[in-house]
Amino acid sequence: MFRSAMKGAGAKTRRRLLGLALVGVATSTLVAPLATARPTDPDPREKIKQKNISIFVSSLIDKRHMAKLGVGDDISQRALEMYFKTLDPMKLYFYQSDIDQFAPESTKIDDYIKAGDVTLAKKIFDLFLTRVAERTAVAQKLVDAPHDFTVDESMERDPEKMSWFKTKEEADERWRKRVKYDLLLQTTDKETPADQTLDRLHKRYRAIDKRWDQTSNDELLEMFLTAVTMSFDPHSSYMSPENLENFAIQMRLELDGIGASLESKYGETVVRHIVPGGAADKDGRLKVDDVITGVAQGPEGEMIDITDMKLNDVVMKIRGKPGSVVRLEVKKAGGAELANYDITRARIELKDSEARSAVVERGPKGEVVKAEEGSSLKVADDPNAATGNVIEQKSADGTVFRIGVINLPSFYMDMEGRRSGREDYKSAVRDVRRLLEELKQQKVDMIVMDLRFNGGGSLPESVEMTGLFIDQGPVVQVKGPDGRVIPHDDDKPGAVWEGPLMVVINKFSASASEIFAGAIQDYGRGIVVGDKATHGKGTVQELEELGRYVNQFAPPNYGALKMTIQQFYRPGGDSTQNRGVVSDVELPSQTTHWPVGESDLDYALKFDSVLPRPHENYPNASPKTLDELRSRSTARVEKSKDFDKVKKQIARYLERKDEPLTLNKEKFIAERDELNTEKEQEEMFDDLAAGDKPVFPQNFYNDELIAIALDYLELLGDGRLAAR
Fold it and tell me: Right CATH number for 254-349 from 2.30.42.10, 3.40.50.1000, 3.40.50.1970, 3.10.450.50?
């Protein structure tokens, strides 16, 4: 069992965004069996396994979920709707007659899963596969059909405003517009050669059909049971055995393999990132944008063609024990020739998920004088760990201030390592503590904790992390289904850092990040700067491995139930649920306005509050100080051409976000050049996935953060220690 303040799956437009932001598919780790392609009628042994998993999930969530709804007819109706939405979120495949066909089942799902009967999932999915094959066949014909891009027509983008198809003609028309839009994207993309446009789209639609056709029984069960659990709240889900292992990898930041991240693109397996120091990096031949076309095991194993193979299956073929050899057939980026690489697998640390550090010095006008990534901070080349950065800045009166920046992508913790008593288990708190000690040695005047895009992680880590900055006291309160409120305190006297503190957040800062930021704010220990508010996830999940209900001493891998069992509250009593942590100083940002927050999710729990807990009050964030910081920042932002551009983009986005997409080429290009939110989102998450990104790059936004930090130091004056 593991309790966490983890980020859960989203809904609507947020599904893709947070999937990219928080989850990377790494081609390296433990050996695991390949899932059987396409759901089949389970054999007797698998049927018993599915039955047990279904019963365990329904029983646990019925008794212990925070919402106390129970698995009944209301949940059953939600679950059927959620399952259809999971399969077809954009309403591109199902007909209204399909929905009507299964409507009588809407009050029976609760009875089915309590009895361990999941056959309904396959009945619906089999029909879905038929519809996908029909629609993708139509799409292939439409790719080669003539399209008039001068016609002034549009395509609805919001599925909530659409209805399911009533006729084949209606389905064909919606897909005509969908294909036309995809053609527009390809033909106006300067990076796509004109002769590859049609070929790429044919590959894309073929890959859609193939991908769904390769769904395994485990994946189908995961989708169906998660539709049930997400009918309680958006963060409860069933994890298949394979995804449970992937989750453990993400938390311990350690795996076995070649050290490369892959993505499926137009039906091909493309290298997205090479992990620094990993086996592929040391070998030196595999490069970003190379296409892997075949995989073989050992020096003599048969080369298996992986064209159109599901990405997870490719990943599992490449993973393996350290010291073993995997052979890859590779088509080099931008070429047609094939090469064969034999790479010896190794233990890989996911450095790009840890805290990192760097040293940057700037002159009196903000110009970069010297930039030394990881000057003396030992995890400087750790892109996924906490990162530290020292910025030397001169204030207006010539005083030199040194500002230490720590970037923390998640509150990671190796659960297995901690349970087994490993002395060197991976921990965000350990890494940040080490960075703070090293930054103190460099005599920094202030610490900036950068939690932008930090989606959460371990609840205990967030409590201990807060303890690095306060003396003692409550960090978070948790309330369970029984209404009892239990405080989680930092009980270790003394703080590692007692100087000025600034916490940087955005709308993607969630869960454990919000526990930390909320506690710092309630204590008056520092200031919170960034988007209007954090994500708004104020719930705690428990990860229950289901195999232990079969055999407690040698549990089989039955996957796990991630279930919301508590709601957390700040020391001052307010929940962060739906509301988030509101910034003390807000900076203009498009992410503030994107529909990616907790309040945008289906069945999110409501905001509430509990009684405040007695805690220390530091004088580091008085109302007078905050008012002055806002006033000074607003004055600079008003004069900034860069922020003026951002504000105009925000206004345009808000004006156009609910409008249909134009399919007129001239208007499309004009609107794309003016406001290309989707492209910005893709670039943002590509930057996040890059392992060589700077800790704290110099740009107008970060420059304003440093200006706020200098204002803060000036306003604190000599009273910079965290006196209580």
Answer: 2.30.42.10
